[in-house]
Specification:
single chain, alpha/beta, 45% helix, globular, hydrolase, GSCFA domain-containing protein, GSCFA, hydrolase activity, SGNH_hydro_sf
């Protein structure tokens, strides 16, 4: 008896990810979930250098500023609730020190610029088509930083606006890295603060826009994480307590489906070795001085050395 309707997926022939790939992950909190998997398995990656970005215009702004190597100054930040903030970045960058905030922003811009030139794959997870425009400057922001909502206008980005933004992102990146491959996906997290109907409309705009730019011949692809969550995992046991975010089981499941499509068979063997070492490093012995544990530690070091001799960028 088959108790699931599974989305048919097959391995991608080109642009597969291996341990020589450099992967940039941008977008909503779901990109953080997948990014943690890349981190665990020790792939070369850069994840949300400006923090979580929910809508495509915020991602486009980051890419534009990174390509142009923008230098952030006092004019780009503001003071509110005893901290300095930047409308381009997530609140995790907010800082009590004006100097430290600017240093962090500019360091991230430089590292993103360099990584974009070397990236093999850019994975973009779009979360919402709703965006906030700061009325005083008439510009869209990545984060409102708890500034009173009356100072913003909330707007639903049209399919055309999103399409143009995605095309701009790809054009900008390929201007300095023509061989890069893009993987687009839509976050399965529902933004019910926007309202149930409005959230559905938002996701529809994102999906429609992405499919306007998907073209495998140009190395632009779609991965159906949203559809997997909505269809294959259509049960609340796959959600966290808020009934909105995928839980660990769901994240692991979608990661396995991603691996099925995007990770080469040879790379999967290396992933198993990394997993064994990670589990060994997390092991807590009853007696750390015992002969058995010392033998275990020695064998673990040998496994690490063997792996790192072939892939020196891997650091545990």
């Amino acid at each position: 008896m088959n108790l699931q309707t599974k989305i048919p997926l097959k391995p991608n022939t080109y642009n597969q990810i291996d341990y020589h790939s450099k992967v940039l992950l941008l977008g909503s909190c779901f990109s953080e979930n997948i990014g943690e998997k890349f981190e665990y398995f020790k792939f070369q990656k850069l994840q949300n250098p400006f923090g979580i970005l929910f809508h495509p215009l915020a991602i486009e702004s980051l890419i534009t500023n990174a390509i142009n190597e923008k230098e952030y100054t006092k004019d780009d930040i503001f003071f509110h609730n005893e901290q300095w903030h930047c409308y381009d970045s997530h609140s995790k960058f907010s800082n009590a020190s004006e100097i430290e905030l600017l240093q962090n922003l500019n360091n991230q811009i430089r590292s993103t610029h360099q990584f974009l030139k070397e990236a093999s794959n850019v994975i973009i997870t779009l979360g919402t088509a709703w965006a906030y425009r700061f009325i005083e400057t008439d510009e869209f922001v990545a984060n409102c930083h708890k500034i009173p909502q009356k100072r913003f206008s909330k707007e639903l980005l049209s399919v055309e606006q999103i399409t143009e933004s995605l095309e701009a992102i790809m054009s900008l990146v390929k201007s300095i890295n023509p061989k890069v491959a893009f993987i687009f996906t839509v976050s399965p997290v529902r933004h019910i603060k926007d309202g149930f109907v409005d959230n559905t409309q938002s996701k529809s705009h994102l999906i429609a826009a992405i499919h306007q730019v998907i073209e495998p011949r140009n190395h632009n692809y779609y991965f159906p994480s949203y559809e997997i969550m909505m269809d294959e995992l259509r049960d609340y046991r796959f959600y966290k307590e808020d009934m909105l975010h995928p839980n660990a089981i769901a994240v692991n499941y979608i990661w396995e489906r991603f691996v099925q499509v995007w990770i080469s068979e040879e790379t999967k063997t290396t992933m198993k070795s990394v997993d064994e070492i990670q589990k060994g490093l997390s092991h807590r012995p009853f007696n750390s001085q015992s002969d058995a544990h010392q033998t275990f530690v020695k064998q673990l070091e040998e496994k690490k050395h063997l792996l790192q001799s072939n892939l020196p960028h891997i650091i545990f």
